[in-house]
# Entry
Amino acid sequence: MEEGKHAMLDTAKPAMKNAASVASGVETRRNPTARWHFVYLAAVAILVAAAGFAGWSRFLSPIKVAVSHPAANVAVQVFGLGTVEARVTSKVGFKISGILVDLRADVGDRVAKGAILARLDDREQAAQVARSKAAVEQAEANLEKANASVQKAQANYENAKRINERRQALVQSRAASVETAETAQAVQDAALGDLNLAKSDVAVAKATIADAKAQERQQEVTLDFHTLIVPYDAMVTARLKELGSALAANEPVFTLIDPKTVWVLAYIDESKAGEIKAGEPAEIVLRSHPNARLKGRVARIEPESDRVNEERRIEVAFDRIPAYGNLGEQAEVYITTVHLPRALLVPEAAIVGLGKDGGKVWTLEDGRLRLREVSIGHRLLDGRYEITGGVPANAVVVTQLRSGLREGRAAEIASEPKR
# Structure
């Protein structure tokens, strides 16, 4: 019996195993559909929830916005590019021609007024000066001779006059003949003529001395022309000739500048130049020292603009001329035309429909966004505009346009980054 039971059990096991396999196959064929249906429903639910959250976030939830706060003591500036120049620049040379035999300065040297820069060969001219001095001495000797002749003629005249007076008296008393009296008168007249002639010789001698001295002075001045003198305290910026050069009259030998007159010649766009006035403060940045801002002021506004570039030439003087910097070096100039005690400033990109006199900006008022028509004033060099009107007292202006800006939407001020 036991063996029979075991045999039946052994026979039944394969049958049960087959039945389980069949059932498993049926379940396997049914489950994929149910599982994908469940996944689909779950995905739809997630998408609906995400869309709802996105819609709430986009249209209902408060957004973060950056806003502008009023700034104090705002400088409105005009920008221009220019070069370092010197107001007083001179090209100096000799007034006469000659051979250059002496040079006493070079580029970069600072020379004092009255110092000698160079000399020409002056040997021939020195001889001319010596000759003119001799002519003066000769003229003076002739004057002395003429004066002696006057004295002699004066004595002869006085003697002839006395003799004539005696002879005339004798004629009156009939002690002498008329012929003798006439001869005495003739001798006196001749002596007077000699005296007048001697006096004329003195006048001629004096005139000759004056002419000789004028000639001497002219030759001495010409001799001085052989020496080139510094006309003012200067710095040599160029030496154009070397020793042995044969120079024509007025040919430049050196270029000099007055270091105290160094300034920046800046070019300002005509549309901005009208705001500039002489004496206004300025900042100068030299290309060789980009991190240094040098103080200056507007010294002169030239009355004529550049017709090609449509720019006005503005001369800006340094408050203290720097030890560094070179003539011709490029410089940036920032001229302050206005100081605003307090100003609300907004970037250009934050103004909608920017026009000549205004535009629209987003404001945050009592936690809600509003689009306001505003008027604008000065424009700063960094692209910000001054808002002069249209913003309520309790409002702040949004400085960055972003998606989600809508009339009436709730908004919050974004925290500013720590500096």
Notes: The mean pLDDT is 85. The radius of gyration is 55 Å. Residues 2-60 form the longest helix (59 residues).
